[in-house]
Amino acid sequence: MSFYPGPSGPLGCTSIQEQRERWERKRSRAARELVQTEQRYCQQLELVTTYFVEILKAKGTLRQDIRESIFSSIKAIHSVNQSLLVHLENGYFGRGFDQFCPHLHHYNMYADNIYNASKLLGIHLKKNKAFRRFKKLQEARPEFNNHKLEDLLQLPIQRIDQYKHFLQDLTAKTSPDNPEFQQISRAVTAVSELSKHIQNNTERHENDLQLCRVQKLLKGQKTKVLAAGRWYIREGWLKMVPPKGADAKPKMFFLFSDMLLQAKRCSPLHPTNGTKFAGQHAYPLQDCTVEKVFGHTRSQGGLLSLTFPKAKLLLLSSNQEDLNDWYQSLSSAIRKLQSKMVVHERDELCRKPLHSAADSHNAPSSSSGSDPSRKRNMVSTETSEHGQTPEEWEGSAPKRMKESENPDQRCAEASTSSCVIL
Questions:
Q1: Whole-prediction pTM
Q2: Dist. CA 277–CA 214, nearest whole Å
Q3: Are the CB atoms for 225 and 214 separated by under 8 Å?
Q4: Residues 116 and 69: beta-carbon distance below 8 Å
Q5: Distance CA 12, CA 9 (A)
Q6: Residue 238 and residue 233: Cα distance in Å, rounded?
Q7: 218 neighbors 279 (Cβ within 8 angstroms)
Q8: HSE (CB half, 13 Å, CA atoms) of 280?
Q9: What are the Cα distances from residue 384, in Å, to 210, 343, 393?
Q10: Non-local CB neighbours of 265 within 8 Å, separated by 6+ positions
Q11: How do residues 134-146 score in pLDDT, each as one tens digit?
Q12: How far is it between the farthest Cα atoms of the chain?
């Protein structure tokens, strides 16, 4: 805060007072907008609970387990927000959010179930004619103002992000001397954590959709893309430069967080696989290095050199921007994967039990006469712990899925093709 360098004190005091008044006006505008949007939000929640949850429960149009899966904790959310609204309308923002935040677990439960709820809603709208007719009649009520149930069910997810911005705005415009400052600051932290959780759920869901999409593009039964912890990054056509000077051939490449998958297009004349790809090679990124090679395309693109333990690829692109993006994506994926491996190995070392000096003294000496075959076995064991063998690569999908989910459940149509793992 700057003060007017006047000769007398009252000018400085006036400047401080004016600044405080400006803050208070800005805070009042933000607070008024928060109250107005909260009123509308509670009205929309009431539409769902009154005209859908309660009536469906009374009519028995949907089984209880299906109804609870679709609407989840929305009744509890409505109840909590009604209490919050009372505080906000009375101007008790700090107290209101201080009592609201301990109930955020209802939002957390709702967020974790939202994609399953959307899927179930779509399924039962297709197969349950009575429910489909009921939904159409309820949405035609004037209170709904042309809003669909699908849109209303997304409101709690959207509201958390709105709370985060409102609270951050209020905190910035509230003096630290204000009694509500600490309460609002705590609310910012709690709501921001939930917002981040929701964002992570969204990213995982979008990633799963990408993995299922790529899996359906591949024919056969051996190239599995669905795997726990795997993330889709990008895909595109690149030309492979053969080692003996033959013509470069275009190949489709799919980049994941742990591997690069090379595929070729199936024959367009095939009756079922005309639009699919056949997986050819899956290259693990764990021990890969990538370099740019210049001077071969007269600045109209370039060449990437990828080195694996048992293979080397030269990938050509005539588009400089596309080549740069591939280089950045590959470098980032390799760096992140290798960083995770270092952390994993360090954690494994920390978990090893410490032996006392007496145990070391009583143990058989293995300094110079150690069994070399035993050393080889130890190395082999470590390799299986920290890296996937070719057999494991054929049995597990190249990457990006939730670790907690079964890949087969995500995409029932997961198709694959025979693919050499290098």
A1: 0.73
A2: 9
A3: yes
A4: yes
A5: 5
A6: 16
A7: yes
A8: 12
A9: 29, 16, 12
A10: 252, 276, 277, 278
A11: 999 999 999 999 9
A12: 91
